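Annotators were shown the component list below and the corresponding predicted structure, then asked to write short factual statements about the assembly.
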Amino acid sequence: MTTTTTIAPTGRKRIKTDDGFFLPEPSRLEKAVGPESARVIRGLLTNPLSVTGLVVVIFFLVVAAAAPVLAPPFQATADPYQIPRDGFGPTPQEPGSIWKRDVPPVPFWYEAVTGKQEWVHLFGTTSGQFDIYYGIVWGTRTALLVGVLVVFSGLLIGLIIGSISGYYGGFTDDFLMRITEIFMAFPFLLAALTLSAILVPLFGRGIWPSVIALVSFGWMGYARVIRGDILATKERDYVLSARTIGAKDGKILLRHILPNAIFTTMVLASLDVGAIVLTFAALSFLGVGTDIGYADWGQVISFARAYILSLDTYWYIIVYPGAALILFGLGWNLIGDGLRDVLDPRMKK
Amino acid sequence: MTAYILRRLVQLPLTVFGVTILIFLMLQVLSPSERAALYIRDIPKNPAQIDRVIKRYGLDKPIHIQYINWLIGTVDQDTGDRVGGVLRADLGYSRTGREPVIDLLLRRLPATAELAIWSFIPILGIGIWLGIIAAINHNKLIDQIARVFSIVGYSFPTFVFGLLVLMLFYAKTGWFPPGRLSDWAVQVVSDPGFIQYTSLNSFDALLNGRIDVFLDALRHMFLPIITLSYLSWALLLRVTRSSMLETLGQDYIRTARSKGVAEKNVVNQHARPNALIPVATIGGLTVVGLLNGVVITETVFNYPGLGSAVAAAAVSLDVLTVLGFVLFNATLLILANLIVDVMYAFLDPRVRLG
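Structure shown to annotators:
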């Protein structure tokens, strides 16, 4: 039986446990998501830097969701990820120039906000007349899709390898960890660059070669972290009691160990979305990623390479898409920095 | 100590073996006719001739035999010569460079080496210095600025940073041009009277007593060096700062302070040597940063080194050239990590005894 008493001055109730200890009553947040997640959420929401990061990331989510409203594509039938172009001229047009050829539908809010009817290139055009504004708006979707896809797949591979390695130990562990080290002997960007170049003839240009390449060389960190956490968790008493009642390996691992060991890895992985998107953009920038004109930030920036000598005149071909990329990376990294503080065991009170 | 180094050395061949297997597996994704570029410069168009080439170099043999052939080369059935073989430093032919991959890599190596050597100085010096400054001013304004600088540094893609500094310091002001040397300096360097001791322009210029060429080389390398450095600064700053903070909280530091050691000496003599031990471990990461960094940095700045050659090869899907570079880099990285581990054991007795 538990009894509750109210302790002044905090007014927070305490619960007396069976063995006579007093524990604070769990708050509503703790009841909803569990004490560990509650501590993380509270830590994030009280740190101004990570709040800024959250706001930025939410902003990008909104832009991605509202892409068809912010920058309407031609028709429902055409591929919306293909950036519409205003002719084929090599010279970039500055922000605010009026759209002359093949004008896509004008968004309904545009006239209400500006009072004008002619659709303009809000952020100018690249060389080849791809609309930068459109590329940035729809590129947000590409970025989020690639980031989540790569991180999720990498996490899955890392979880499988790391759990088997940590749970069985011995030779299996040695073998799998050596394989992990071999993958780590390759510099990440270079390995991804190589594998994308190999995969392009198989899959054609698009996001897939880069995505597969990034996953192939991006799972090792997760495998190592989850292995370490499983090594610690499998020594717990409840695992032992599960084993004594004859539970099978798979059930012990999936039901008892993984749910208690997975937390740190999931958090670390979710933060990699920012870094992954930056690397994906780098691959596109170098030219092994998506096809020319695909709505993807690295692709849009790569047009600037032809105008290095006159970047002072055509500043907008690098500044706008560059700002989108930096903001995106910054948002995730700010959250990541806050999370690292919360998760660092030395910071626990 | 010796036992520790020996143990690490025994592991080394295993890792190298794994790395070659992985690279070889990536090669297998290519069709046999594309892999023929391992042995011949021009791949014939005619299907019958392609079949002959595949037979001639054993590209239809079982995979383990192909792997051994790839390592030590195969005997050309027509001429009886041994051709190919990664261990014989024959990496096949570069489709983009129209020459053996190894020649291309060796020709481009000095420019990249020069860039890397010059980059190490600001990377280590400024990165560690910033970290220490941030730690001894913990939670003061300067610490916050350093922290924000570090996060922003992480979030700044190399190619965007490179293009932005080019916009400011070249297109607008003309101070630091892209490329490796100005036209007049290229003429000086290619003059027979100018002796190429090292093929590193800046050092050769000093050895030949040409200060003007030296300055021109530095002027061209300045922006690439900054671009290569800032990412490592962000990393080094963070690691040095947290390590220094931890060390400053130790009992022996309190003892030193309480017996009246000047704060300057506490920081420089008591805390810093111990705080820098973990910093040594990220030496390997710095090397990775440089190897990844040169590909993008050299491409942005049009700098004729290994990185830009590899980027160009990757774009035209010239896999052999890229894989040659990857092999070279993986070897370098394994060696760098070995050196770091040994150095770490040397610096910190807990590692080799524990």
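Statements collected:
1. The first strand of chain A starts at residue 3 and ends at 6.
2. Chain A touches chain B through 54 residues (CB under 8 Å).
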